Amino acid sequence: MLLLQLFVNGIQVGILYALTAVGFSLIFGSTKIFHFAHGATFVIAAYIFQFIYAGLGLHWILAVIVAMMATVSFGLFLNRFVYVPIQRHEGSYFTIFVASFGSVIIVQNLIGIIFGRGFLVIDTPLSRGVEVVDNLLVSPLLGIALLCAVMIFGGLHLVMTRTHVGIALRALSESPELVRTFGLSARRLSVYAFALGSSLVVPAAIFTGATSGLNPTIGYHVMLISLISTIVGGVGSIWGAAIVGLMIGIAENLALWQFDSQWSEAVSFAILFLFIIFRPSGLFGRASVH
Amino acid sequence: MIAYLLNLGVFFCVNAILAVTLNLIIGYAGIFTMAHAVFFGIGAYTAAFVAMNFTSSLIVVTLAAMLAGGALSFLVALPALRVRDEYFVAASLGVQMLGVTIFSEWKAFTGGLGGVLNIPLPTIFGYEISTPTEFFILALSGLALVVLISRSLARGSFGRNLMAVRDSESAALALGKNVAVIKTLAIVLSSSLAAIAGTIYAYYLSFINVQSFTVDTSVLIMAMVIIGGAGTIYGPIVGAATLMLLPSALSYLWFLPKTEIGSIQQIIYGLAMVLLMIYRPGGMVSSGTKSAR
Prior knowledge:
The structure holds two protein chains of two kinds.
Chain A: H1 2-31, H2 38-55, H3 60-89, H4 93-115, E1 130-131, E2 137-138, H5 140-162, H6 164-174, H7 176-181, H8 186-199, H9 201-211, H10 218-233, H11 238-255, H12 264-278
Antiparallel strand pairs in A: 1-2
Chain B: H1 2-28, H2 36-53, H3 58-72, H4 74-82, H5 85-105, H6 107-110, E1 123-124, E2 127-128, H7 132-155, H8 157-167, H9 169-174, H10 179-205, H11 215-228, H12 235-250, H13 261-279
Antiparallel strand pairs in B: 1-2
Helix pairs in contact in B: 1-7, 1-10, 1-11, 1-12, 2-3, 2-5, 2-10, 3-10, 4-5, 4-10, 7-8, 7-10, 8-10, 11-12, 11-13, 12-13
């Protein structure tokens, strides 16, 4: 029974990981920009939502919309005023990473000053567990998150396969030169990648706030999970990232059966380490780009 | 005032050692590790353990710390040999997270979250180092030693090999360089030298806990290297001095709330990292616009 409970918890966490990782995978896969500040986007989403929803007492739909606007603006701002200028003069991975990293530090501390460094928990009755079968607690949030994830992934699939932007983004991830040959602007496409990828973080941030809570420094953890998912899933494969995100969530929670919760990060790291040593191209590497 | 300056001086030396050693990996080998604080920690905990259980001899303790740092650096070296760039950042971030978990959980060795208390004073050839002045001299000679070693390494054939690997791995390989050995050596050297900083730190405070070895420390050292100038010999020292003086300078600005100074300092160096990367990717000590990589 304990295992089943842990498995259910794992799915709940895994869905959130999948949602977070997909956004990063989309940005990194198509633009090749090492957007380390994706973790900062996550923090912004959670705090803005909490401020509008609990702080101002407005409707949650409004809070979601504002949080989404904030994350998209943040992503576009970084792209326009940091990444594009750097790429103009050289744009090695190192330079982009450091600049992105600097942005993480700025956001994390600004949020700490404005909202405090304490733990943020989005208070909702939905996060309380309900006993489904004997001893198996499931919170309604799991159902909502699951539904949300299915809708988002379904929508994303449609965007990536049916719209011009989606097809162009996939093309960009496979062959930037070819995209240019066809007269499409990689720079313009990266705007869509950042907008889409950044907004995808909002539901995950809100659900994390409602289930386990978070603080301004969660960005590192978010990035670690996103990076592991993207790499183990295979760079360029957004579905790979989603599946691995889900798997990490489940693995971390199943590990609680034997280890204390402090070791959950070590479990996901062990997965990454093994993949880097034995299969650096990931589960769904280049060739099988979706 | 003198005591304040000596205290600042010791911390500056510790940070400068960390920055100079990290620069060996980041600046010269082009391997971007986020786990340097782990080796600082390994040095400090090993030093504390040996000092409390076996001997007070500074030389033995330092050598033990260096050995531990060097031996455990395979955690960083292994992924560095397999993957590059973004992949490696992920792996090293993982090592950092794992390191913090172990530091706070392995109670027998690290004392858990509470840390290690009452580390005895070091002796060198029977002479006990106890006053702040003596500690400052010790820290300064540690820094001088590390700078000397890394300078001769960087300027010698090993440094040229490293830079060759950094600039083009395939070209270095084609010239018959053993890329794997060169990378591994750089990481082992840098990690074991970083353990010296850990030793000095543990002795000076006579108390250590996991707070000093978190990802924030790794980030701070990284910021020192980058802001000062990665791949230059004195850049990291300039960077360390700049970032160390920042909090003291900020405390003169009376209108800033005292509780937020730490955050404001971090915002300033975050901003410096962003702006430097846009306008001067080589860092403060660099010859023009040449990039670090």
